[in-house]
UniProtKB/TrEMBL annotation:
<dbReference type="Pfam" id="PF05193">
    <property type="entry name" value="Peptidase_M16_C"/>
</dbReference>
<dbReference type="InterPro" id="IPR050361">
    <property type="entry name" value="MPP/UQCRC_Complex"/>
</dbReference>
<dbReference type="GO" id="GO:0006508">
    <property type="term" value="P:proteolysis"/>
</dbReference>
<feature type="domain" description="Peptidase M16 C-terminal">
    <location>
        <begin position="190"/>
        <end position="365"/>
    </location>
</feature>
<dbReference type="InterPro" id="IPR007863">
    <property type="entry name" value="Peptidase_M16_C"/>
</dbReference>
<dbReference type="InterPro" id="IPR011249">
    <property type="entry name" value="Metalloenz_LuxS/M16"/>
</dbReference>
<feature type="domain" description="Peptidase M16 N-terminal">
    <location>
        <begin position="42"/>
        <end position="178"/>
    </location>
</feature>
<keyword id="KW-0645">Protease</keyword>
<dbReference type="Pfam" id="PF00675">
    <property type="entry name" value="Peptidase_M16"/>
</dbReference>
<dbReference type="GO" id="GO:0008233">
    <property type="term" value="F:peptidase activity"/>
</dbReference>
<protein>
    <submittedName>
        <fullName>Zinc protease</fullName>
    </submittedName>
</protein>
<keyword id="KW-0378">Hydrolase</keyword>
<dbReference type="InterPro" id="IPR011765">
    <property type="entry name" value="Pept_M16_N"/>
</dbReference>
<dbReference type="GO" id="GO:0046872">
    <property type="term" value="F:metal ion binding"/>
</dbReference>
Length: 434
């Protein structure tokens, strides 16, 4: 069996050695204090850059829920003397694109541009304005507030959204991870431009910035880019630490809904990104419910009993304990039976762990699929951002498969027993039988 995994590992190395060997991650701090992570790759005339901050929804305060998300949305909608249309035109003129990232911990923006001098210079000039000089125009703010409020109201009629919202309230209570990432209708309607400016000044600061760069530039050019993107940021702000997550009060909420199917979700505080149990839980969850049709939940709930079309589980690691979730949909009249079976499968898995056969199959799937997770510059950029933000080892990408291969059935069993209490989970059935 060891020989089998050795072959898999060798195939992986051959397939992606340009990413893991010939393009090592370089790290330094810019003069502004920003942390920079760089991979030099001249295979294509493309440059990808991301800048991220500890400015996710957990940095909101309850009375201003949604402020963090609006700040991130409006960064590129008016900055440095450029209007929304002028920003879009200047980027389109050189074939550049931006996209955003936002979650409970992080907020950031990504630029992709050609690496040729004219195109790169113009794109980076616009990008630097967006990051360092956002203006939050009042008309744009009013428009985006209304758009977000309309989206929340529409989503609030759907059973999956209702279940997710209620589940996070039960799981986190007043903890910042329990805030809706988009915000609340009541708080969004009260937000003013001054609130966004204050949030930006407090959280979009150089000392907390993480810059990831990959593509067709040299180390010297990458260093100049990092300086340009952060030289005018406030040096320090008022970012605060996310508090520890408390164990929730267990319970099940049954919420009526006219939908034909019930949406069932269960949750428990999961793991931190830096958790020493990260890899046993990663592999174990693949076996339990993260591996699609080969997972144990899928086999027991769908294949054997026909109680759901799909059922899944996942860990969402953050600075503090992100959620461990299980979700499924089923006919209303089957909802209680499906919930009971899901709980039974989880209890058995936590008690006994996986079989050796399940472990072998999971490792094969994870190791075999890993090259697809790093087969483009944009995907590697995502890894660089995670490594930088959570300050993981620079060798994280090369260590990943070694850590997966080393996981044992006993490590999985012990990790799940340490981290997950099946009888302590919270659960929601949206679309319960009345």
């Amino acid at each position: 069996m060891k020989q089998f995994f050795f072959v898999i590992l060798m195939l992986f190395v051959f397939y992606s050695q340009w990413a893991l060997a010939s393009l090592p991650i370089q790290f330094w701090q810019a003069s502004s204090g920003a942390r920079v992570y760089f991979v030099e790759n001249h295979d294509l005339p493309i440059l990808d850059v991301s800048v991220e901050f500890a400015a996710g929804s957990s940095m909101d305060i309850p009375s201003q829920s949604g402020c963090a998300s609006l700040v991130q949305q409006l960064l590129s909608l008016g900055a440095g003397g450029f209007s929304e249309d002028q920003i879009a035109t200047a980027l389109a003129d050189v074939g550049a694109q931006t996209r955003s990232h936002f979650d409970r911990d992080r907020a950031g923006i990504v630029l992709r541009t050609l690496s040729s001098e004219r195109e790169r210079k113009q794109a980076l000039d616009v990008f630097a304005r967006i990051i360092q000089f956002p203006e939050f125009p009042q008309a744009i703010l009013s428009r985006e507030k209304e758009r977000t409020i309309s989206s929340i109201k529409e989503s609030s009629t759907k059973p999956d959204y209702i279940a997710e919202r209620e589940l996070m309230k039960m799981l986190y209570g007043n903890h910042p991870y329990g805030f809706n990432e988009q915000g609340e209708v009541e708080t969004l309607s009260k937000l003013q431009r001054e609130d966004l400016l204050a949030f930006y000044r407090a959280h979009y600061v150089a000392e907390g910035a993480v810059i990831a760069i990959i593509g067709d530039v040299t180390r010297l050019e990458a260093a100049a880019i990092a300086e340009k993107l952060t030289e005018s940021l406030p040096s320090t702000g008022q970012s605060r630490n996310v508090p520890p997550v408390a164990i929730p009060v267990t319970g099940i909420k049954r919420l009526p809904h006219p939908a034909a199917q019930s949406h069932i979700q269960l949750a428990y505080p999961g793991l931190r990104r830096s958790d020493p149990d990260y890899f046993p839980l990663l592999v174990g969850n693949h076996i339990l419910g993260g591996g699609g049709f080969v997972s144990r939940l899928m086999e027991e709930v769908r294949q054997q009993r026909g109680l759901a079309y799909s059922v899944y589980s996942f860990f969402a690691p953050y600075k503090e304990q992100g959620p461990f979730q299980i979700g499924l949909q089923t006919k209303k009249e089957q909802s209680e039976e499906a919930l009971a079976l899901t709980q039974k499968v989880l209890k058995d898995f936590v008690l006994n762990g996986p079989t050796e056969k399940e472990l072998v199959a999971a490792k094969q799937n994870i190791i075999g699929g890993f090259p697809l997770r790093i087969d483009s510059n944009s995907k590697i950029l995502g890894f660089l951002s995670v490594i930088g933000f959570y300050q993981l080892p620079l060798t994280y990408m090369t260590d990943y498969l070694v850590a997966v291969e080393a996981v044992t059935t006993e490590q999985i069993r012990q990790a799940f027993q340490r981290r997950i209490q099946p009888d302590g989970m919270v659960a929601v059935i949206a679309g319960a039988m009345e």
